Amino acid sequence: MVHLPLGKALNFAMQRAMRDDDRVVVLGEDVGTLGGVFRVTDGLSVEFGPNRVFDTPLAESGIVGTAIGLALRGYRPVCEIQFDGFVYPAFDQIVSQLAKMRARSRGRVSLPVVIRIPAGGGIGAVEHHSESNEAYFAHTAGLRVVSCATAQDGYRLLRAAIASDDPVIFFEPKRRYWDKGEVDLDASPASLDRALVLRKGRDCTLIAHGPTVKLALAAAEAANEDGVLVGVVDLRSISPLDVETLRRCVAETGRAVVVHEASTFLGIGAEVAAAVTEGCFFALKAPVLRVGAYNLPYPPAKVEEEFLPDVDRVLVAIDRSLNFGRTPAHA
Amino acid sequence: MSTTTDRPSAAGPAPLRVQDPELQGPIRLVDADGRLTRRGRERPVDVDKACWLYRDMVLSRFLDREAVALQRQGELALWLQSEGQEAAQVGSVHALAAQDHIFPSYREHAVGLVRGLSPAELLSQWRGVAHAGWDPFERRYHFYSLVLGTQTLHAAGYALGCKLDGEDAVTVVYFGDGAASQGDVNEAFNWAATMSLPILFICQNNQWAISTPTTKQFSTPIHTRAAGFGLRTWWVDGNDALAVHAVTSEAVETIRAGRGPALIEAETYRVGGHSTSDDPNRYRTDEELESWRRRDPIARLRVVLEGLGVAPPWFEEVEEDGRALAVRTRQECQALHAPDLADLFSEVYADPHPVLQERAAYEAFAAMVEGGV
């Protein structure tokens, strides 16, 4: 076991994958000599050289489009998109090309491409650097969408993503890059489509992913001090959703609150709420609630902490759930 | 920078250049009336090769016209006509080696035919039974791309892979004058030049992007723009099969020699509409169409071959083969049937995925409907 920040754990995951398989290549803006603006690819170009790690021209559609071509040629490209808000120039290549090639080919062509996206807010960044855009990709059949929360899990999930023969959009919570945790570098790759139950609950279940997993754990801890036993589930996979695990956990508590940084309107929380409601309607004691960002463009950094969900907003939602049908909310 | 270089050669004609100094226009070896130009007379015509070009152009025209007829009769939902562009397509693909990988746009039926695709494979997409009707690796001929220009980046990535593998293969990508306005195409030019990729871009400038003429598409010719990116470029009369073949051979040779990427702009004309749903009478004149019909690539090469002594029975034989291909096209088209929707669920993801449970739901529903609930 080693004590590592998330960013370094992801770095080790790519290093391990590149050592194990010489068809794994890394490409993106400033990923070579610089090691990426967050240093997640630090040292890879030194170890693997310019034929495995490419500093590309500054063009996101080109990064994904050429990754598709490399994958057609038998490579396993791992692309870095520098920031969440910069992925849109590549949107067509992702949703119309990458996602659909296997279906178009009736299963003859697989594209094992990973697109890493540092996502979410909380770092005081300028506009287009703090977005949570996972729902756009989760809506597209043909992609897998993964969101990691911790150093250990990030390491295992990224290795699984690179090993997958399907295209994977891999979200990394940039505000957690420096959060350290124990990492077992020999741990097997995680299952790419299973949620992780982090804490068993009795009264309510919090469902979170990526940056909000830490928040959900803090809220559960705070609720515990008031004698409310709250469980926490880390989605990990946003597409597909691990509906089975979600339903099992919610059925045990009868209440669920979904927490994510994206706006709640048509966010992943809406899909989770629908799936949970359909699967355990009679076990529910309250509607599934959602806590997320307001339905606004991401605001200037000085007010982002008010825009993003925090422990208090999660605790209020837990209260609303516990008191549903008894007293008016916020009474 | 200089993008083309004349290499002095002890034997053979001087390399073809971006611009024909004689005509101040695209490179042309045969004029519109079928006479060899000065540059055409400099190089001996390989009669066997020219006969192959002629034959494949005729065959692809028969296939194209039959497909239009099939669409008019409701057998195809749509067809994108290739008539008029046979020289640009057949002339270029014949200059490639078997190991070269081709990324077409969506109108390169003649290229596909030369690469060995069957009429059924070429028609399935337009009959609505598939999105891509063939295996892209078997004949090294990738799927059609309907979002314009996207394939140029796939080709750039594929070429990068070939370069990393040290394989002696050129990646060839076709696109049109309209697609040249897409960001992807310009990113691909830049990528190819920056990484010195073994890739050949072939732009079939057919003068029209649906109803938008090239004058509204760009103010600098595509070959000039590509040269600005650092590509070695050729500008060729795309209705002159011999010129297209010669230029493509030369371009491929320079790429194979490790001298970096290249682009050919072939000036040609889309004789039909953009598709069978299009009405070109709304935006172009009969005079324009007629002026291009007079430059027809098949008629032009026929004059050359007749001048070289190819006898009338051979031409009749080719026509006969064309008619047989049309019959086969119709038969194969009518034999194309829709896939089973249930089968599509397992073809989206390579690794296990819960969408397979939706397949079960679909099948249960279908059985219920079948059972007459």
TrEMBL record, chain A:
Residues 4-179 form the Transketolase-like pyrimidine-binding domain. It holds the Pfam family Transketolase_C. Its cofactor is thiamine diphosphate. SUPFAM superfamilies: Thiamin diphosphate-binding fold (THDP-binding) (SSF52518), TK C-terminal domain-like (SSF52922). SMART domains: Transket_pyr. The keyword DNA-binding does not apply. Keywords: Oxidoreductase, Thiamine pyrophosphate. GO terms for molecular function: magnesium ion binding; oxidoreductase activity. InterPro entries: THDP-binding (IPR029061), Transketo_C/PFOR_II (IPR009014), Transketolase-like_Pyr-bd (IPR005475), Transketolase_C (IPR033248). This is Alpha-ketoacid dehydrogenase subunit beta. It comes from Nocardioides gansuensis.
From TrEMBL, chain B:
GO terms for biological process: branched-chain amino acid catabolic process. It catalyses: N(6)-[(R)-lipoyl]-L-lysyl-[protein] + 3-methyl-2-oxobutanoate + H(+) = N(6)-[(R)-S(8)-2-methylpropanoyldihydrolipoyl]-L-lysyl-[protein] + CO2. Its EC number is 1.2.4.4. It holds the Pfam family E1_dh. Belongs to the BCKDHA family. PANTHER family: 2-OXOISOVALERATE DEHYDROGENASE SUBUNIT ALPHA, MITOCHONDRIAL. This is 2-oxoisovalerate dehydrogenase subunit alpha. It comes from Nocardioides gansuensis. The lineage of its organism: Bacteria, Bacillati, Actinomycetota, Actinomycetes, Propionibacteriales.
